[in-house]
Amino acid sequence: MSTIQALHDSNWRGVLHITGGGASLLAELLAVAGASRTVLDASIPYAEQALTDLLGTPPEQAASQATARALAMAAYQRAVGFGGADHFGFGCTASLVTDRTKRGQTRAHWTIQTVSATHDYYLELDAANSRSDQETALRESLIASLGAALLGDDDAGLQGTVGRAIPQWQPLLSATPYRWCSSQSNGSLILPGSFNPVHDGHYQMLAVAEQITGKIGAFELTLRNADKPDLDYLSVQERLANITDRHVWLTNQANFAAKAELFPGATFVLGTDTMARIGEVRFYQNSTDKLAAAIERLQALDIHFLVLGRAHGEDFVSLDDLTLPSVLRALCEGVPESTYRNDVSSTRIRAERALSTQDSLE
């Protein structure tokens, strides 16, 4: 029995997002009887804007592991939305030979996401081969990976990595509010962030907050983002591995009114950029009533914010520079620049790494 037929005969049901290279997989899947049992939906977000619309933000690099993971998670979320069980999301992004000159190795990255695991795959393709030959090689690898990840087949020499979720992580992909901690923490002092990557500024922020409040702090990494796909398990594992000597909470809540429900009575440690967003009506579907209701809920749950300044261009922005609703401002305590200033940012670190990677491909 072929891998595709076995997949159609299984209980797996999924959504596939493929950015051009590898799209012939869809034809192969649909050509075998029973495809409607497996394929819930599929898309080919080839244009840059189409990819941005799907992911909620422009990817830092289109043909990359990070983009494949985001595509797979977006596909998984859409599959879950159709109801039922045994869902998977498939995301593929590839850089194949074309009529334009390209830098670097022709390659493909793809990811298969389920409730219990994130499967990453990578394939280098010979740039001397034709587009057709590359597409055939990629399609065969994609099919083999579906068998390996979903049916328990031998991986047949595929290059890949799998991140399996412990049972306590799996509720993080559900809609029900949920939190889990890597160690013992009472959740009274929380520094939220994506920690991509974690850096000295994060540790310094939490240390300053501990000195001010007298509480033991913890980081909080949410798998959910209001405008982007959920964070996958491999990315979570990688970020946790880089955070040392600190408690880390994992949650599935994107906004602070929802986070407050998980951490009543907590003090959140924030930079001014994040604090400003909490008070902006555009993050509440442009509804002043929803903004007011969110702030009222923060009050009711006894939430406080310890706000540290951030560099913005040539300026240093402190809490006093922000325009916030008065009720929200009353929940905040500012930290002076003389107590904390660190201009390192995860965004800048990623940009420097990307430049280094591009240089190595030339």
Task: Produce the secondary structure layout.
Blueprint (H helix, E strand, L loop, with lengths): L2 H7 L3 E6 L5 H8 L3 H4 E5 L4 H8 L9 H17 L5 E9 L11 E7 L3 E8 L6 H21 L7 E6 L14 E3 L7 E4 L7 H14 L4 E5 L10 H9 L5 E5 L4 H7 L4 E5 H7 L9 H13 L3 E5 L1 E3 L2 E3 L8 H4 L2 E4 L10 H16 L1
Parallel strand pairs: 1-2, 1-3, 8-9, 8-11, 9-10, 11-12, 12-15
Antiparallel strand pairs: 3-4, 4-5, 5-6, 7-10, 13-14
Helix pairs in contact: 1-6
Which tags fit this structure?
7-stranded mixed β-sheet; alpha/beta; 6-stranded mixed β-sheet; 362 residues
Descriptive overview:
- This protein has about 350 residues and is α/β, with parallel strands linked by helices.
- It is elongated and about 65 Å long.
- Helix 1 packs across helix 6.
- It has helices spanning about 5-10, 25-30, 35-40, 50-55, 65-80, 130-150, 200-215, 235-240, 255-260, 270-280, 290-300, 325-330, 345-360; strands at about 15-20, 40-45, 85-95, 105-115, 115-125, 160-165, 180, 190, 220, 245-250, 265-270, 305-310, 310, 315, 330-335.
- A hairpin with a 3-residue loop joins strand 4 and strand 5.
- The strands form three sheets. The protein has a seven-stranded mixed sheet with strand order 7-10-9-8-11-12-15. The chain has a six-stranded mixed sheet with strand order 2-1-3-4-5-6.
- It starts with a helix and ends with a helix.
